[in-house]
């Protein structure tokens, strides 16, 4: 389980919090529109339907920003929730991040172990602004890298879980209390449940 700082109401619990801040965000109509544009995009919706099921409804269980500034140390490699063999066989939790600026190697990019626990399999997400990336909370061994630059690294991220499925042990649950159990997305229609439709922002996921 991850070592954690004690958060305030507006701070999430993260590993290695020095010079690193996790801040739960309100889910405004604009944010919902941005998320819908991503979740219903041709590069993302089919992936979600394969992972969760084509007719599943998923709820928002995290909606937050993560900021790391100069001096942030590399985190320990970790997964986001506790994963017993039984949990791994029923993995249903998925997180997504949106890069809010071009991420350079010295800005402490997200680092993922691609095929196991060997450092030579390390992949750093040095990506352009607007890139969307997805990770399996039960399986993706990852960490935030060390930020040695003069530029902060900021990401906007959210986590999805099927309606009715309990949040797994170990999750930071970085979501404002008043937003819990309020935002449900229908994977078949590509819409938030209860929304009347309208234009979807032109937000495209990058490969």
Task: Give structural notes.
Helices cover 12% and strands 26% of the residues. By secondary structure, the chain is α+β, with helices and mostly antiparallel strands. It has a single domain (20-192), classed as q2cbj1_9rhob like domain (Jelly Rolls, Sandwich), CATH 2.60.120.620. Strand 9 and strand 10 (191-192) form a beta hairpin. The longest helix is centred in the N-terminal third of the chain and has 11 residues, at 29-39.
Estimated helix fraction: 10-25%
Per CATH, the class reads: Mainly Beta
| Number of helices in the DSSP assignment | 3
Q: Tell me, briefly, the overall form.
A: globular
> How would you sum up the major sheet?
7 strands, antiparallel
Q: Strand fraction band?
A: 25-35%
Unreliable stretches: 1-13, 196-207
As for the number of domains, it is: 1
Q: Please give the number of β-strands.
A: 10
The rounded distance between the terminal residues' Cα atoms is: 31 Å
**What is the SS-derived class?**
alpha+beta
If you average the pLDDT, what whole number results? 84
Q: What would CATH call the architecture?
A: Sandwich
Query: What string, H for helix and E for strand, traces the elements in order?
Result: EHHEHEEEEEEEE
CATH topology: Jelly Rolls
> Radius of gyration in whole Å, from Cα?
16 Å
Q: Can you tell me the CATH superfamily?
A: q2cbj1_9rhob like domain
Question: What attributes does this structure have?
Answer:
207 residues; alpha+beta; Jelly Rolls; seven-stranded antiparallel β-sheet; three-stranded antiparallel β-sheet; 3 helices; 10 strands; 26% strand; globular; disordered N terminus; disordered C terminus; Phytyl_CoA_dOase-like; Fungal_Metabolite_Diox
């Amino acid at each position: 389980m991850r070592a954690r700082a004690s958060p305030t109401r507006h701070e999430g619990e993260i590993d290695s919090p020095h010079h690193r801040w996790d801040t739960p965000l309100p889910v405004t109509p604009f944010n919902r529109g941005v998320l819908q544009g991503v979740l219903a995009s041709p590069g993302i919706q089919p992936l979600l339907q394969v992972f969760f099921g084509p007719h599943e409804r998923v709820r928002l269980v995290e909606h937050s920003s993560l900021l790391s500034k100069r001096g942030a140390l590399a985190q320990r490699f970790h997964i986001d929730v506790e994963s017993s063999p039984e949990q791994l066989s029923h993995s249903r939790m998925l997180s997504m991040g949106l890069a809010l600026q071009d991420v350079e190697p010295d800005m402490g990019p997200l680092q993922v172990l691609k095929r196991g626990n060997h450092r030579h399999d390390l992949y750093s997400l040095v990506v352009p602004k607007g890139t969307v990336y997805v990770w399996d909370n039960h399986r993706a061994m990852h960490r935030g890298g060390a930020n040695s630059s003069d530029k902060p690294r900021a990401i906007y991220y959210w986590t999805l879980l099927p309606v009715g499925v309990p949040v797994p042990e170990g999750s930071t649950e970085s979501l404002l209390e008043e937003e819990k159990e309020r935002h449900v997305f229908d994977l078949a229609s590509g819409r938030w449940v209860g929304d009347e439709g309208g234009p979807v922002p032109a937000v495209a996921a990058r490969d």
